[in-house]
Amino acid sequence: MRRLLTLGAAALIGAGASLPVAPAAFADEVRPAYHFAPARNWMNDPNGLVYFEGEYHLFFQYNPYGDRWGHMSWGHAVSRDLVTWEELPVAIPETDVMAFSGSVVIDWNNTSGFGKNGRPPMVAAYTGYDPKTKNQSQYIAYSNDKGRTWTVHGKVLDIGSTEFRDPKVFWHAPTRRWVMLTVRAVENRLSIYTSPDLKTWTHASDFGPAGGRGKNWECPDLIELPVEGGRPGEKRWVLGINLGDSGVGGGSGGQYFVGNFDGVHFTPDPSWGREPQWMDYGADFYAAVSWNDLPKTDPRRIWIGWANDWRYANAIPTYPSRGLMSLPRVVSLKQTPEGYRITQAPVQEVETLRSSHQSASAFMLGENRTALPIQGGSVELDLELELGSAEQVQIALTDDKGFETLIGVTPKTNEVFIDRTRSGPHFHDAFADRHTASVDLKSGRVRLRAFVDQSIVELYVNDGQTTITDRFFPGGGGLKWSASARGGTATIRKFDGWTLDKSKVP
Which long-range contacts (CB under 8 A, 24 or more apart) does 444-447 make? Predict the structure, then answer.
C-alpha cells in the first residue's frame, strides 16, 4: 500500500499529468463485464484474500468518500466461483488511523482466543497509518460472522517507522507458528516476524535489498509451490515483492524470487541471479497477493493483482469507480533452461462465462488487415500463430473514433508486445507506451491467449510463460478486431474467440 505524500490534487494526479477526461467519456455503460471493480469510488491493492466456508473473500483498499486515493479503508467482496462477485459494505473503516494493506487468516486452532462457540475466527492484519504522525504500525482485527463485521483488537507491532507496512500473515506448519511478512519500504527490505498467537510478534530475519529496487518495496507474499519438471517431490518457495516505481513497465510492478524458507529465513536458491524476474511485463499488474486457506480439495495457488499504475492511477478516465482487479490467476513454478520461472493462467472458472464461440483455422495474414470473427470489448481470444516471413504480426482492437490498441509479435527481436500509444484520448503523459516481453520465437510459432474487458488486456503467452497486463481507454463506440502481417506473411493456424459475460454463469 503506497503512502501518498500529499492529498493535494496536483500530487495525486502526478507530475506530467493533464486534467482527466470528463467522467462521461468512460461511464457505466462500458464497465468491465467480468473483472471486479467496486460500484463506486476509489479502489487499489487487494487485501485479506482468504477462503472460508464456501466463500472467496476479496478485501481491498477503498475510499468510501470519493474516486481518488484517501480515507483508506477495507472494502469487501465475496464470491463462490472467483468470477462473480458480490460487493459488501466496508469491512474495516478508517478511524483515527487509515486501514492500509494487509491479509486475513482463519485461526483454525483459536490461538488468538478470538473464536466463539467452537468456531475459528477470521483475523485480519493490516497497517494502521496515522495521518498526524505519519507512523505506520501493524494492527489486527477479528470477525466471528464470516467477515461481515469486525472488531479491532488494536496495534500489535510498532517499530516507530513511517515506512513499515503491508503485513502478509500465514501459518507455517513445520514450526507451528504464524509468520508475518512486512516491508521496510524505502529500505527495499523485507522483515519477517513470527508469533504463537497473532498478537505477540518477534523479529525473525530480514531479506534485501535484492533484485529490482526503487523508491519503495510493497505488498510481499510467500508461497510454496511444487516444481514442474523438477526432481520428484521438489518444492520451492516463491517470494513476491512489489515496487511502487521502477518496474519493468516503467512504473509500478511486481518481481519474485525463488528459494527456501525454514520458518525464519528466506534464502534465494543458489542459482538465482541478480537480475529481477518480473511477475508481469505490462504496466498494470501490481500488489499481487495470494489466497490463504484454499480448500484442501483445491491444490491451486491463486493470486490477484490491482490493474493500475501509481503514476496515473488517480487520473484514469473512469466513472463512477476508479480501480480494477486483474483476473484471479493460478501461479505455478517450472524448472526451465533459464532456471526456476513462474507461469500464470486465469482460473479455469473464467470459462463458465463463455458464449458466442467463433473459430477459424489456417488463414493467411498480409499487409492488409483481415477482420477477425469476433467483435466487442469483453472477449477471450486464443490464437496459434505461425510467424512465417513476417517482420511483425499485429492484432488490432479499434474503436469507432480510430483509436486502437495493438497486440503484436516481432520475430526478429523475439518479442511480444502491447502497444497502447494510440489507445484513446490523452489523459496523462506517462500512459501512452509500448510494453514488450522477451519470448523465444525460434520455432516460428507462438500461442497468444488474451482476455479483454472494455479497458484491460491480460495477455498470456505460450501457456502463461509470460504475461503482459495493460489498461487502455478507447475513445468511444464499438470495438472491432483485425489482424495483419508486416514485411511478409503469417498464418493463424487456429483461432478461437468467445464473448465473456457474467450473465452466462449457470
Answer: 444/386, 444/387, 444/388, 444/411, 445/384, 445/385, 445/386, 445/387, 445/493, 446/384, 446/385, 446/387, 446/409, 446/416, 447/382, 447/383, 447/384, 447/385
Judged against a pLDDT cut of 50, whether residue 21 lies above it is answered with no
Is 45 an annotated catalytic residue?
A: yes
Cα angle for residues 151, 156, 160 (degrees, 5° grid): 130
Task: Give residue-wise pLDDT tens across range 353-395.
Answer: 999 999 999 999 999 999 999 999 999 999 999 999 999 999 9
Work out the average pLDDT over 468-474.
97
Catalytic residue among 28, 45, 145, 298: 45
User: Could you tell me whether strands 41-52 and 321-322 are parallel, antiparallel, or unpaired per DSSP bridges?
Assistant: parallel
Is the pTM higher than 0.90? The answer reads yes
Q: What is the rounded distance in angstroms from the CA atom of residue 80 to the CA atom of residue 55?
A: 5
Provide the strand spans (E) within 427-489. Answer: 434-438, 445-453, 456-461, 466-471, 479-486
